[in-house]
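Sorry, explain these tokens?

***
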Amino acid sequence: MKSKYYHFFFLLSILILYFVLSVGSALHESLTFDEIVHIEEGLNHLTYHTFAVDTNNPPLIRELAAIPLVFGLGRFIPTDIPSQQALPARFVTILLGGALLVAVFFFSRRYFGMIPAMLSVLLLAFEPAFLAHSHYVTLDTGFTLFFFLACWALWRWVKRPTVINTVLFGIVFGLAASSKVSAWIFMVGIIGVFLFLQKTLFVRLIRPKQIILVLVSCLLTIWATYFFTSDVVVAQRQDVGRVSSKLEAYAQQTHNQWLQIGLYVLKYQPIPLGNYMATLKNNALRAHLSSDTFFLGRTYPSVSWYFLPVNFLLKTPLPLLIFFGLFLIQLIRNTAFRKNTEIIWVPLLTIFTISSLLGLQPWVRYLLPAYPFLAIAGALVIANITDRYLRYGAVFLVGWLIAGTLAQFPHFISYANELSGFRVNRYTKFADSNIDWGQSLPDLAQYVQKEKPKSLTFSYFGRDNGDNYGLVSNRPYGSYTQPEICAFHEIPYGGYGERIVAISVTNWYQCGYITQPQYQKDKIRTVVGDSILIF
């Protein structure tokens, strides 16, 4: 009992440190580009049960984040700063991240023992990518939690296919699928690998009753996040460029009555889960669209499979990569170790492989569901070290990980390891949610207050309201159209210093400022908050 007390005291200590770091980051960062739409949509979902404005994402995480705002908790925060008004919603994400740490602890203790459980929580709690997204009102942390739980429920179902485990897997996977549609692709891939590795074990699961029970539980869970509403699958918009419009024209030209009937039903007949089917449809269509992709300081016309793995290698702490490499070596050398850790390396490698081949933009946050398994893999490596000197090396690596992460506070989102070069030059390799997501308005306000310029000219990649941070502009903030995002805000100060030009790193690339002589790299005076260039 005494031993258990110390183990849980350790877990509690890690959770407290995690909450301190996450809340501290939330208080020091402005709203990121995506947070405003997630908050607005979450309020619409809960208040009006409308889901048709943004049909690219499921509603669950947005709804959870909006709960405290619906109850008016934001009114008790005496400030006009948007990021602090949104603190109750951000705190929901922080709680989801804390729940993930607890889940990792109990999962690791259940299958690998107490020491790996403690180590896995320690490694995950100080992982910069996890900390970066553990306080934003976005989908990534919540999805990572529910997908991790779904993998755990899948393993329980495989080992003991009882009715309770079958329904539990369906419900938990439904929560993951209600968080992000990529849950379907990841889970199908994981089940496919498990089926290949354990054919005899999975044969008993491939039965109509089992499959139907899982699907019914899953779909009812998803439908509950839509408050059991019905809607059409294809929105009624006049756009000749839409796939549905092209199919409709083709059906009329070829006199294909079945296709015409099907399109009519999809367009005019509300059905259960219609909004979710529209979300699946939209994501499938977007996957086939090519778009410009930023990678290591250059813009490419399309995504290559290695973009995301390379960014992962640059933005994951080297100690964790070393532990992962040792884990892979053990997998190759030790058959028993490979068999006993299937629940770790199968989801881990499946997520990596599918994410690379899907053609996703190379934002490391898309790999966040892999990080709990990565932390557990590292913990198993450390726990299996028997040599005294190697243990000293492991302690050094863990200390390196913690120190490097703490040095990045409060902007964990802009973290990159030593392979990427000096911190001041990270803007030469990364953009968007890998370094600049609009989070550094307080840093710019503090810098301007110190410099006291005559005026500030500012091109901001973000939708937060800079007026409330002291960056009062001649034009409104918050646009989502590219020309208005790229345009400069003129902010007079009347100080005695010289005029300052500030450009968000993402705008520097995406708006073409990098090609203009007055904004070349050699004209940069300093970098504020890792993400705003000062000229």
User: Anything to note?
Assistant: The chain is about 60% helix and 5% strand. The two ends are 61 Å apart (CA to CA). Strands lie at 230-231, 271-272, 293-295, 298-300, 455-459, 489-492, 500-504, 526-528, 532-534. The chain has a mean pLDDT of 92.
